[in-house]
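Weekly puzzle thread! Below is a chain. First person to post its structure in token form gets bragging rights.
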Amino acid sequence: MRVTVNGHEHELPATATVRDAVLAAGAAADERGVAVALDGAVVRRLDWDATPLHEGARLEVLRATAGG
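Winning reply:
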């Protein structure tokens, strides 16, 4: 299925979950400071494995960074 992650199209398996999208964005699944929005709604980290994606889903995967 085709989904958009951070503005870029990705081809993921039909069984893909939010965790798969996080990996497609280049973040480690256990990386701290990562937040995900699926079609504009925040998905709790605890729900990444249980939240399936759908054709045309739009995800934003954000990483917190320190600095000034």
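Puzzle host: Confirmed. Bonus trivia for everyone else. The radius of gyration is 11 Å.
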